[in-house]
Amino acid sequence: MGFSDVVIKLATRPDKFGGTIERWDAAEKALGDALRATGYDFVIAKGEGAFYAPKLEFHLKDAIGRSWQVGTLQLDYVLPERLDATYVAEDGSRKYAVMLHRAILGSLERFIGMMLESYAGRMPLWLSPVQVVVATIVSDADGYAEKLTTQLRDAGIRAELDIRNEKINYKVREHSVQKVPLMFVVGKREAEEGTVSVRRLGSEGQKVTPSMDAIIDLVAEAVPPDLKRGTPKLVVAA
To answer: pTM of this prediction?
Structure first.
């Protein structure tokens, strides 16, 4: 879901409004000029502004094509006058402030709901609340699994441990339903060799990864560069 999917609307003066038409015209022009200066296209949503200010609306489409308003930005000349919100200008006079109302994501619940729908619950690895589950096949591997989970967490990877006394197929099915991107399956052989069997969500079979560096790289490679910290092997933790 890139920025090209965003539709920007400039919502203008409604039939019932506060303040003067001159103030509204100035605010609408300022918002439109700002968008043009940044090179973004927009459409006019006539009469859909708030009673106190015009606004920019950022609309995204969900997985089934429905449009949802998320972020908004309102340029408000009216409420500062009602609140008597003033400042001292350079010439010593008092002037009314200009108020910006911002909601970067809009309703946080709505935004998260859209993301869950768009990804069908299968979040990108870098965004998934749980990136890795380390699951044991036999109890003999519990100590190794605990050590592995600690190392993953120390590297900034959001990892959970599953050493329940359940069959591995049950664990795989349960964590797959929960849309965990990666499962590191360890048994007696993996514990002895210092490896893991990697199972990716939605794929069949497992791949043996030979070292801890390779294991951490497997997660880190899926993280956008601007979300990493420190060395390339570290992943930002929530």
So the answer is: 0.62
